[in-house]
Amino acid sequence: MGDLVAEFRINISNLSEGIHEYSFEVPTSKIGLDDRFRGLIKVQVKLDKSLRQILLQSSIEVGSELECDRCLENFQRQVNTSYSLVYIQGDRSTVEVKKEEEIQVLSTDTNYIDLDEDVRQYILLDIPQKLLCKDDCQGLCPICGVNKNVTKCDCSVEVVDSRWDALKKLSPN
Questions:
Q1: For the chain, what percent of residues have pLDDT higher than 70?
Q2: What's the pLDDT at 128?
Q3: What is the DSSP string of 62-126?
Q4: Which domain holds residue 101?
Q5: What is the DSSP-derived secondary structure letter of residue 166?
Q6: Is the separation of the CB atoms in 25 and 40 below 8 Å?
Q7: Which residues pair with 11 in a beta bridge?
Q8: For 50-76, what is each residue's pLDDT tens digit?
Q9: Domains identified in the chain, total number
Q10: Looking at the domain assignment, is residue 159 inside a domain?
Q11: Which of 77, 106, 132, 164 could make a disulfide contact with 110, Cβ separation 3.0–4.6 Å?
Q12: 3-state DSSP assignment of residue 40
């Protein structure tokens, strides 16, 4: 990511006080997202600038194609997420920061806010760890391998609890 040009960059050097709105549409590859993400990343940004701080509110939309962890089928999922940050202008040593992840300190000579990494991270954080095409996905049959969402099979799956194996050895039959 070091050599990429900032795609979500806002010039704040001569920004007047008040509310400013920005819209961006950028291909997913421009901020280093992998091929699971499709089309354009749409970002809406609202800045509320006061004398020494800027409140940023951002909403993000992008399409993705993911693989279900249960049935291994590809499915589409729309990523819709948002975040807020407060930028405070001044020297880090003179600004009291309580929540590091929600407040960023900008030096007084900062001319731009680059949102690329924030947008990329919030998109990735919106993808769940357990990927399911639908909540009631049946998955694959462990015997014949068919997708149980599409085809019913007659395979009998016996659930074996190995914790009882030692007691089975004690039975007299």
A1: 88
A2: 93
A3: EEEEEE-TTT--EEEEEEEEEEEEEEEES-TTTS--S-TTTEEEE-TT--EEE-HHHHHHHHHHH
A4: 9-126
A5: H
A6: yes
A7: 112
A8: 888 899 999 999 999 999 999 999 999
A9: 1
A10: no
A11: 106
A12: strand
pTM comes to 0.77
Lowest mean pLDDT among 37-46, 85-94, 160-169: 85-94
- Is residue 107 domain-resident? yes
* Residue that is written with structure tokens 């089928």 in the block: 73
Chain position carrying tokens 């085809």: 151
The C-alpha atoms of residue 137 and residue 132 are separated, in whole angstroms, by 7
170 within a domain of the structure (yes/no): no
**Contact partners, residue 88, CB within 8 Å, separation at least 6:** 52, 53, 95, 97, 103, 104, 105, 106
Q: Which residues contact 172 (CB under 8 A, 6 or more apart)?
A: none
Non-local CB neighbours of 104 within 8 Å, separated by 6+ positions = 85, 86, 87, 88
| Stretch 162-170: mean pLDDT | 80
CA–CA gap between residue 42 and residue 26 (Å, rounded)? 7
